[in-house]
Specification:
By secondary structure, the protein is of the alpha+beta class. The protein contains 2 helices and 8 strands; from the N terminus they run E-H-E-E-E-E-H-E-E-E. It has 2 domains: 46 residues, Signal recognition particle alu RNA binding heterodimer, srp9/1, CATH 3.30.720; 55 residues, 2,3-Dihydroxybiphenyl 1,2-Dioxygenase, domain 1 (Roll), CATH 3.10.180.10. Helix content is 19%, strand content 46%. Strand 3 and strand 4 form a beta hairpin.
């Protein structure tokens, strides 16, 4: 069963967004660089996320963990969704890809394959 694993929040001002979410929800962060921070949400059952510098008009993205990105993309295409770009690798962690559903919503896929 696929589960929501991660979320991504675009921001015009990453520092302002971190301050907002930190004060409202108690989130803490690991800094990746000046434009990206990994979110540590509160609670044992919380999912993780990141805040990143917005490059174009974007909405937050939900990322779903699956067993196989390829199989999921095949199912997405058959059900009327669209693939956005290729499958990318985060070295030693896993792979991700993006798609849109038939309503035009952008979502992500994640699997833990590293080869």
């Amino acid at each position: 069963m696929a589960k929501v694993q991660h979320f991504e929040i675009p921001a015009d001002d990453v520092g302002r967004a971190k301050s907002f979410y930190g004060s409202v929800f108690g989130w803490t962060y690991d800094e990746w660089d000046d434009d990206t921070a990994m979110i540590h949400a509160v609670g044992d059952d919380s999912i993780g996320g990141d805040i990143y510098k917005r490059e174009s008009p974007e909405a937050p993205t939900v990322v779903i963990t699956v067993d196989s990105i390829e199989q999921s993309l095949d199912a997405i295409l058959k059900a009327g969704g669209q693939r956005l770009g290729g499958i990318e690798t985060m070295e030693g962690m896993g792979r991700y890809a993006y798609f849109t559903d038939p309503e035009g919503n952008r979502l992500g896929l994640w699997d833990t394959k590293t080869d």
